[in-house]
Amino acid sequence: MDISTSLPSLPCESLSSDVTILEGHTSEVITCAWSPEGSLLASGSGDSSARIWTIVDGPSSSGMQKGPLNVLILNNFKGKTNEECKDVTILDWNGEGTLLATGSYDGQARIWSRDGELRSTLNKHKGPIFSLKWNKKCDFLLSGSVDKTAIVWDVKTGEWKQQFDFHSATILDVDWRNNLSFATGSEDNMIYVCKIGENRPIRTFSGHQGEINAIKWDPTGSLLASCSDDSTAKVIDAISFRTT
């Protein structure tokens, strides 16, 4: 049986009153993330800022956010003279929706309250941060960087707890398996499963033939999905080491 891969002709819809446009950034918007309860939307930009937008129910008739616009501006360069290389590259809300973590091109991660207060600046990476994830318990933050390392941060103290330097190229994505272990994917085509307190990977996967762009654990923590520049997505059984 032949399976057609062509798409049916669909109408192309233009922006209308059903679309709320959030304006204010002065450069490209790189990343965005909803808070867990859905009332706040965070965005990160090449203008060295993140913004927290309060989203009201339903679009306005003009297609713009119902006014007055409620937005908090989180400036990476506040109080500093050098504003270069601080593009916000990644952001992630904690599970409670009380804290927003941002990663930027200057290699620093920052933690903000939902009210826009800078709670802590996490500074150890030697290159841009491209991945950033909270664990479910919200006590640790995990970051992956161009400097080929992943770092687990203790959110309560604002200090780094452990740095993992197993990769030989940029770490493009990280994902928690549970509150203590996680996976990292890299431009070196490798996936490592690591655990806080361990000095060596507890699992190593090398099946991809290209850069690994994204990784994601299933809810049980037994299956790990990955996608790569090698034109494949894979599902790894992390218990039996089988790949599909």
From TrEMBL:
WD repeats: 22-55, 81-113, 122-163, 205-244
Keywords associated with the record: Nucleus, Repeat, Transcription, Transcription regulation, WD repeat
Cellular compartments annotated: Nucleus
GO molecular function, one term: transcription corepressor activity
SMART domains: WD40
Main location: nucleus
Pfam families associated with the record: WD40
Biological processes, Gene Ontology terms: regulation of transcription by RNA polymerase II
Highest taxon listed in the record's lineage: Eukaryota
Annotated Gene Ontology cellular component terms: histone deacetylase complex
PANTHER family documented for this protein: F-BOX-LIKE_WD REPEAT-CONTAINING PROTEIN EBI (PTHR22846:SF2), WD40 REPEAT PROTEIN (PTHR22846)
Protein name listed in UniProt: Uncharacterized protein
Species per Swiss-Prot/TrEMBL record: Tetracentron sinense (Spur-leaf)
